[in-house]
């Protein structure tokens, strides 16, 4: 795996309150990393025929909405350039949000997506999914989702849960890169229950701890036997006043199994910003999978 670096950041813009929170947080991170910030507004497509009074009016309304969005995003760009002294580019796309984010990420080689989320619950959360869920699933890079105001511009406390899932350790390189940049404390949180193979779990936890020690970073270690690790991870992040909770996205339905970290639940309910990372499978010496 290549070293994680942040040179290009993408923020989907919907002009909502949480969306504006995400823009400011992204601008702070962009300034810290001297990264280029892209603001993307995905507009509705004009699918109406210009025949008939009703359809023509609808098409004109959509067109006017595109123009208004372009003016609003230009104002946000100028404000960010002035306040943060960073490179900012506005982008207008047409279609579906997740698809638009995926396209821009690939076209512009985006390293990180940051977006506001309104959360989801009940049927929407577990069947339909929120916009944040869809973007996390579609984006080829890590995604930070924000639901509540972020009062600190620096990442000083980063929570890294390690559970018994196959890819849980893949988040280590990302966490270490961020912790080095911000001189942050890593909170290594081991989460398991009585159904877990304790020996294998301890090997994963020790591997994560060894990587942190090798990087010479400050860390705190805690191991918890719990039933629902999604809830436990959020609870712990509140207790330590974390600035970021880092999770993998490979087990959306897992909170029902009792011992794997349910990523959708965390994305939609965490009051602490969440970085979601897609797992990858790659080989190391000897042809074995690294996980």
Task: Please specify the SSE layout and strand pairing.
Elements: E1 8-12, H1 17-33, E2 36-43, H2 53-84, E3 88-94, H3 97-108, E4 112-116, H4 122-128, H5 131-138, E5 143-146, E6 157-162, H6 172-182, E7 185-192, H7 198-214, E8 219-225, H8 229-239, E9 244-248, H9 263-269, E10 274-277, E11 283-284, E12 288-289
Parallel strand pairs: 1-2, 1-4, 2-3, 4-5, 6-7, 6-9, 7-8, 9-10
Antiparallel strand pairs: 5-10, 11-12
Characterization of the model:
With 291 residues, the protein is of the alpha/beta class. The chain folds into two domains: 8-146, HUPs (Rossmann fold), CATH 3.40.50; 157-289, HUPs (Rossmann fold, 3-Layer(aba) Sandwich), CATH 3.40.50. Helix content is 42%, strand content 22%. α6 links the parallel β6 and β7 (185-192). The longest helix is centred in the N-terminal third of the chain and has 32 residues, at 53-84. The N and C termini lie close together (11 Å). Residues 120-129, 251-260 and 283-291 have low confidence and may be disordered.
Number of helices: 9
Q: Could you list the spans in which at least 5 consecutive residues all have pLDDT below 50?
A: 120-129, 251-260, 283-291
* Strand order in space, largest sheet: 3-2-1-4-5-10-9-6-7-8
N-to-C SSE string, H for helix and E for strand: EHEHEHEHHEEHEHEHEHEEE
What's the CATH topology label of the largest domain? Rossmann fold
Q: At the first level of CATH, what is the class of the largest domain?
A: Alpha Beta
| Beta-strand fraction estimate | 15-25%
CATH superfamily caption of the largest domain: HUPs
Number of strands: 12
């Amino acid at each position: 795996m290549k070293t994680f670096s942040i040179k290009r950041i993408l923020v989907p813009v919907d002009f909502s309150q949480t969306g504006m929170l995400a823009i400011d947080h992204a601008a702070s991170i962009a300034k810290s990393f001297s990264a280029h910030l892209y603001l993307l507004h995905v507009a509705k497509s004009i699918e109406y025929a210009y025949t008939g009074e009703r359809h023509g009016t609808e098409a004109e309304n959509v067109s006017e909405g595109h123009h208004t969005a372009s003016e609003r995003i230009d104002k946000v760009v100028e404000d960010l350039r002035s306040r943060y002294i960073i490179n900012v580019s506005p982008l207008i796309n047409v279609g579906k949000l997740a698809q638009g984010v995926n396209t821009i990420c690939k076209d512009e080689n985006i390293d990180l997506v940051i977006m506001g989320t309104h959360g989801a619950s009940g049927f929407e959360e577990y069947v339909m999914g929120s916009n944040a869920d869809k973007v996390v699933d579609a984006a080829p890079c890590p995604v930070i989702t924000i639901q509540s105001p972020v009062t600190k511009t620096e990442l000083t406390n980063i929570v890294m849960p390690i559970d018994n899932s196959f890819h849980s350790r893949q988040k280590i390189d990302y966490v270490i890169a961020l912790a080095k940049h911000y001189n942050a404390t890593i909170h290594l949180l081991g989460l398991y229950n009585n159904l877990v193979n304790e020996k294998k779990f301890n090997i994963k936890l020790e591997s994560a701890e060894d990587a942190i020690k090798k990087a010479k970073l400050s860390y705190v270690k805690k191991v918890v036997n719990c039933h629902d690790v999604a809830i436990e991870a959020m609870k712990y992040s509140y207790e330590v006043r974390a600035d970021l909770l880092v999770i993998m996205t490979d087990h959306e339905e897992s909170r029902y199994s009792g011992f794997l970290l349910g990523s959708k639940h965390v994305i939609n309910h965490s009051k602490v910003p969440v970085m979601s990372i897609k797992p990858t499978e790659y080989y190391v010496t000897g042809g074995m999978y690294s996980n």
